[in-house]
Amino acid sequence: MSTDKHVYPHHKVMMITCKGTTGMFSKMKTDLERLIPHTKKESKFTTALPVSALMEVIRLRTCDHALYWEMRQRTELILWATSYPEGPTVKFQVANLSTSDRMRYQGNFHRFTRPILSFSHEFDQLEKYELRIIKELMKRIFATPHLHHKSVPFVDHVIAFRVREDGISIDFRVYSIQQNTNIKQGADQYSLVETGPSFVLIPFQILSSVMCGDILWRNKNYVGPGERAKQQRAREFRQQQQKIREKEIYSQRDKTLPVDPIDLALSREGFEAVYGKISTVDIFGGNEGKYLMPPKRILPSAGETNENEDEEEPEDEDYEEDEGEFESEDSSQSSEK
């Protein structure tokens, strides 16, 4: 009786980061280690050595795949995904990163369970060979080997790779498979609930060998951190030069105030320009060539005002005499009583 069994290849993935990574990126690396049971941890790689020196580290750890997380200028995270010993190597820029603890996803799954890998239809297009290379590399890294000693023998989550609208960026999402308790007629028995981590992979270069080699493909729309900083400095310089030119133009302006059209219309010249010159006779002064103006109020002179005041004084005396008579009558009436 034959006792031969089919031998499945056991892939080993080395997960390594460079020195200087922040806490959020370290947490994301821990989330990915929970997804890949056949991973091997390694201490942080120094940036003093070239990246090609990782080939020797991969060989010593007897791994056939590697994920290297590189931090550039503490703002940009670069992912190197490679296959040992022949390559190729794909370089990604990691954007829109969110860990499982940061977003507080509702989904959950067991540790080291087998995943279902889901790829969108763009990965199968013949004209996009770079996406087909990425698909094959992701399958070897994230697919749990058959009968692996660390894997749990059931499936409870899905790892999805979706190409975005730009045709090159890839959405990485993880969903847990949950059974619906309240099943209505025609409803699905299982549903997908998103869990972490989630990020966007922007491939910008494919190399022919392990961490080095000829460039097989390059993303023409990718702009590195150094080039972005250079463009930002050039943009700020142009804005500064524009402000200087505006100040020079403002200093050379004509400082005389413009003529207000309303004041011009209400002036004599503006009135004559519209209605023409009107020759009339001033009924108060008898001068020709002037406009009819309302008569001024004639105020009395100082001497006339004093005479009027003196004439009005007797009226006040009569009024005082009348008041005295009324007072005497009131006093007589009170005495009689």
Automatic annotation (TrEMBL):
Top-rank taxon, per record: Eukaryota
Keywords in alphabetical order: Nucleus, Ribosome biogenesis
Single Gene Ontology BP annotation: rRNA processing
Every Brix domain range: 11-212
UniProt biased composition (Acidic residues): 306-330
Disordered, as annotated region: 292-337
A GO cellular component entry from the record: nucleolus
Cited InterPro entries: Brix (IPR007109), BRX1 (IPR026532)
Pfam families, per the entry: Brix
Annotated SMART domains: Brix
Subcellular localization: Nucleus, Nucleolus
Predominant cellular place of this UniProt entry's protein: nucleus
GO molecular function per UniProt: rRNA binding
Protein family according to the UniProt entry: Belongs to the BRX1 family.
Protein name, as recorded: Ribosome biogenesis protein Brix
UniProt organism field: Giardia duodenalis assemblage B
Source lineage: Eukaryota, Metamonada, Diplomonadida, Hexamitidae, Giardiinae
